[in-house]
Design goal:
single chain, about 180 residues, alpha/beta, two-stranded antiparallel sheet, 5 helices, globular
């Protein structure tokens, strides 16, 4: 089960460990803390599976360049998990905008066009001097849920962070609209 990440909260850590052991998995990294007002904060220390970002990016840059020197009419980079997409703005003085650097490096390495899926924020498309198409996985994911989940209309979809809450809300609204139509 290489594509499964098992997470456990703080209430039943022993059970989480037993389930992980039974499945032959390691528990994923989760940090839970309490704010001063006693609200709970949860941080998931696991990636969505993009692998080694730096290695993958360098390999993609080299492949783009190898293609470009072979004189094709066009090179399109298809990137499921855009590198450094979460570093899309300056959060402090002298901080780099690494998503912009990644987009520029792809262009310099020879890409004429970038196709990616579910960018962290849509303004990343404007970082590049070449066309960037951001495809949305939501319709395909919703179709898969409908076809593979019993009682899918009673599912609860959650967001890993505040930024994703907007997308989850739009799913809920579109599903309730579909339900009444």
């Amino acid at each position: 089960m290489p594509n499964i990440v098992l997470l456990g909260g703080s209430s039943h850590q022993d059970r989480s460990q037993r389930v992980a052991g039974r499945l032959g998995l390691e528990l994923g990294k989760v940090v839970t803390e309490k704010f001063s007002n006693r609200e709970t904060s949860v941080e998931i220390g696991e990636s969505s599976g993009c692998g080694e970002v730096n290695d993958n990016l360098l390999e993609l840059l080299i492949m783009n360049n190898a293609c470009k020197v072979a004189s094709p009419s066009r090179v399109t980079a298809v990137i499921l998990c855009f590198p450094y997409a979460r570093q899309d703005k300056k959060d402090k003085s002298r901080a780099p905008i690494s998503a912009k650097l990644a987009a520029n490096m792809l262009s310099v390495a020879g890409a004429d066009h970038i196709i990616t899926v579910d960018l962290h924020t849509s303004h990343i498309q404007g970082f590049s001097d070449i066309p960037v198409d951001n495809l949305y996985a939501e319709p395909v994911v919703l179709q898969w849920i409908r076809e593979n989940t019993a009682e899918w209309d009673h599912c609860i979809i959650v967001s890993p962070d505040a930024g994703g809450a907007k997308g989850v809300t739009s799913i809920q609204v579109s599903q309730s609209t579909d339900y009444f139509n």
